[in-house]
């Protein structure tokens, strides 16, 4: 169980802060059922409510600073998504995103950076689908790492870009 003040990943909503734990004072809702009140960190205009025992949506702690640093060190060793068929590639991106795992986000980012370079060398841009999944993966990864490392998202993006340059992916 999470505590008030914890930062967690809550499904596709990304990083959220646990604001409260308890029953909801909403008509028609069982007040004895414990729920988390979550505040998405990068979308202050919304508040989310979810049962403490919700097993339908991924809920996990944000990785620690140490885990974030280790992850950044591992970037050269994280594999690419090796699918050539556009339809299968999109399915592979969706599957990677379903896990809400930093390594999977890096796989997508690395794969699409390589793909972008290949397409640019042919005088082409990334496809709309590739661009969409690249942005989702970057958003998820940079959001989590910014909280884990107590940095702003732009600093995290610069750090990851530098690391990708070191392994000749940018």
Automatic annotation (TrEMBL):
Gene3D superfamilies: 2.40.10.170, CarD-like, C-terminal domain
Recorded superkingdom: Bacteria
InterPro entries documented for this protein: CarD-like/TRCF_RID, CarD-like/TRCF_RID_sf, CarD-like_C, CarD-like_regulator, CarD_C
Domain CarD-like/TRCF RNAP-interacting: 1-113
The protein, known as: CarD-like/TRCF RNAP-interacting domain-containing protein
TM ranges: none
GO terms under biological process: rRNA transcription
